[in-house]
Design a protein that fits this description.
Two copies of one chain form a homodimer. Chain A has helices at residues 27-30, 34-41, 59-66, 71-74, 79-85, 122-129, 184-202, 205-212, 235-239, 250-258, 277-290, 300-306, 310-330, 389-399, and strands spanning 6-11, 43-49, 56-57, 95-104, 109-112, 132-134, 137-143, 148-154, 171-172, 220-227, 243-246, 293-298, 336-340, 357-362, 385-388. Chain A is of the alpha/beta class and 408 residues long. The interface between A and B is medium-sized, with 38 and 30 residues.
């Protein structure tokens, strides 16, 4: 049996609830979406609890589950994902933190958690504090967009179970505490990094210049969201597949890199409402040539939902549908294609919700169940039934004749 | 987003199997039930294995699962539930037993396990044996209805893993044995309680009077069903909700109290076929004012099934439907309502069975799946699919926008 290729298209937050003003329909039920419906008609459908029934998925935990990892085991915190998103390669044993550049006074009281959303100079500031040695631990720091950055502590005997330094609002900078005795060295190194980096940043030319221009200096680094990569066996080793991802949003890119996927940069793929859908579709088609598994995330639906904009969300559905039509036309019929969402983001809620998401799988000889439309309700009578996010990747591998036999 | 209120209505044992004499229909398929069907039409439906496929739920384990507890972890034995039902407040570390007052001879051979279903005097007998100190352990005893009672052992180092004293039929009173070494102290205290209480009961005026009147004396206490509350985090703390229950039957009241629900007494709510349905409905409506989650158990369907009375069960369905109609008319459309059963009790079996139960959820913006009738078969094509009892509470919390996000 030839092993088939796999394409997973995740429409971020596209799944929704019915809305009264739109005749108790969801955006997926209102939109014209011939490609999604064709995919559904030619395959099997169902619903999916991405993490589990009644659990609201975060974007990070959701994607881990979609890639077949148990998020309850694999997920320690947001730090490692941000680090991977920023292009820092993590080693086993490293502890990573999301950070903000902030403005604080000499008594370590934060007056602006984002240092006036600082736009330039963070690269120089990052270089000035990165590489610090603290009691056998090396602190690696890299800037992100605007006031954001990532800190990685590297050295023996570290543990991610420490509390945040970031007070999450204006106020006194917190001392990190170890949540377990094994994490004391990490908390100590972290507190020392915060103190020493504040001394360095206070005197840095970038900040002198900012103060002179009346801008709040980026004189404090506030780490939070400690985590380690622990149990994450990379996808290529785990399943013996070459993998690539098409994604605009940093968080999703970070997860994909973390689990060993190739994540090329695609001009125009922004992760926003203005994303270049056809650039994403074309990238996916191209990546399928040299990979066994290609993943595509389209963020725009989630963005429209956070704005509570039903009509915009309908437009997003239709834009994704055009992209999907383009892709389905170009790829071989033997490619196993999955269309789904990472979570629901109802326009009525404007936040992620725990409602299950629709799923359709077609291509590569998949069974055909007679469901005709891709929406939250139609798919629920499909042959897939109701599964968990963690089951999707094994089902795709099974359909692609790449699953492993258990027993004789 | 506003957090919504939740109402769970559990029709005890209403779920059934088809019966030949009634055209291969179930009581739910035969009954006229406009309110149940309306609820179903305005929401989503599915089937539910209350514990798991092929497992016959007890009323105790079923309700634990419906409230979101894993019965395999939370359930240690019936004793704690009976104790809570009898109004004894259990502490962590207590071991509780269900007990019978029985009649035995001087060689500890039981001749009547229910002491002639003794109707009066058990309160005096209970007082005479309660409060006993045994090697640092206090034995608290309280009478229940007729021959029933509850024993609680309190003190350090106790463990519920001991065998029953009750022989479960006429014959020699058993010595309790420790099933694990840690339970030796408990078994010893239990055996000592049985011996000493037998001495006290033998001489008690109530028993002298019974013997004089030719009635079997209640001269032996037979404990069974040892258990501890162990892992049960109360519902209000677990989910941050104020909870109240409307129930007539002692066992269900006991579980609700055990997990921290308010359980007001409702005149006329008997837990039998003669229960006052509208009193229950009105109590539920009232309790929704001051609570986030209200639970209603209606026992009558189970009672009709244990009698094997199909027609009576149809009447019970129609009575519950009237109650439901009253409730749905009064409550706000934003209340998330779940209608289900704790287990099937087929009239053809006259006992609980492992068949899954129907479930419908509506209100509060729930999706709508087009299922039109509330019965064992119609709901099985609904959008909920087939879930487990333990998933129901998280799904309700999710629909009510009270779920927690996992990840970022």
């Amino acid at each position: 049996m030839t092993q088939k290729k796999m394409l997973m298209i995740v429409c971020d937050g596209l799944s929704d609830r019915p809305v009264k003003q739109f005749d108790m329909k969801t955006p997926l039920q209102v939109a014209r979406k011939p490609a999604m419906d064709a995919l559904t008609r030619h395959g099997i459908s169902g619903t999916m609890d991405v993490i589990g029934p009644g659990i609201i998925p975060g974007s990070d935990t959701a994607h881990l589950a979609l890639f077949g990892y148990d998020p309850f085991k694999a997920y320690t915190g947001r730090g490692p994902i941000e680090a991977a998103g920023a292009g820092l390669e993590l080693l086993r044993g490293d502890v990573a933190f999301r950070c903000n550049f902030a403005t604080a006074n000499k008594s370590f009281v934060v007056t602006d958690r984002r240092a006036g959303r600082i736009k330039s100079g963070t690269s120089e500031l990052a270089k000035a504090v990165s590489g610090m040695k603290i009691n056998g631990v090396t602190a690696i720091f890299k800037e992100g967009s605007e006031h954001r950055g990532v800190l990685v502590l590297r050295g023996g005997g570290l543990d991610y179970r420490v509390t945040d330094v970031d007070p999450h609002q204006d106020g006194k900078v917190l001392e990190s505490r170890a949540l377990v005795p094994e994490a004391k060295k990490t908390a100590d190194a972290l507190n020392e990094f915060v103190k020493r980096s504040a001394e360095i940043l206070a005197e840095h030319p970038v900040n002198r210049e900012r103060t002179k221009s009346g801008l709040p200096p980026a004189n404090m680094i506030l780490p939070r969201g400690a985590g380690s990569i622990g149990e994450l066996e990379p996808l290529p080793q785990r399943y013996g597949i070459r993998c690539a991802a098409v994604a605009g949003v940093t968080l999703v890119k970070g997860i994909c890199r973390l689990i060993g996927m190739e994540v090329p940069s695609i001009p125009g793929a922004t992760g926003g409402l203005d994303t270049d859908y056809s650039a994403k579709g074309e990238a996916a088609i191209k990546l399928l040539d040299s990979n066994d598994f290609v993943f595509v995330n389209v963020k725009a639906g989630d963005v429209a939902s956070h704005d509570g904009d039903f009509r915009m969300k309908v437009t997003v559905v239709e834009n994704i549908d055009v992209m999907l039509g383009l892709v389905l036309k170009e790829i071989h019929e033997d490619v196993v294609v999955a269309l789904t969402c990472d979570h629901s983001t109802p326009v009525s809620v404007k936040e992620h919700s725990a409602d299950p998401v629709p799923l359709a799988i077609s291509g590569g000889g998949t069974r055909i169940d007679g469901v005709k439309e891709f929406d939250e309700i139609s798919v629920s009578s499909g042959a897939i039934g109701r599964i968990r996010g963690m089951d999707l990747m094994p089902i795709l591998l099974g359909t692609a004749d790449r699953a492993r036999k258990f027993g004789a």
